[in-house]
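Hi, here's the filled form for the chain we discussed.

Project: internal
Contact: R.S.
Residues: 146
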Amino acid sequence: MSDRKTIHGYLNPSRLQLSEPLDLLTIEGEHLQLLLKDLRAIYFVREFTVNYEPDRKAFLSRPKLDGLWVRLRFHDHETLEGILTNDLLALLDSGVHITPPDFNGATVRVFVPRTALAEMTVLGVVGIARRKPAAPAPAQPKLFSD
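And the returned structure, exactly as it came back:
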């Protein structure tokens, strides 16, 4: 939550793009409805532990995953780096999905609503677009036989 309160539970990630409230099922079996504007970030974790935030909030060197290397700055001036898919349609949603820098940590993915962000900076483009080489031009057919 935006007030740094943590709620452990299960939600359907496909519902994150909708403007409707999110349906969250807590570990205790309680049903909650949350609005995206009230959330700071949603952490998708391997298992529920006390330490859900990534151990590292920035990459130590240039990342190896393909995508956009971004730095997110929250309204409280805290930053978090991650890899965002290199897809303009993903930026039109109600937030961004990033892969955090600590690949072996408890957090697999983080969803940050647009309302929680003060700034998003692209630090680099990782990987290259794989293009097929241009096909050679067809040979001109001969008009006269030799």
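Let me know if anything looks off before we file it.
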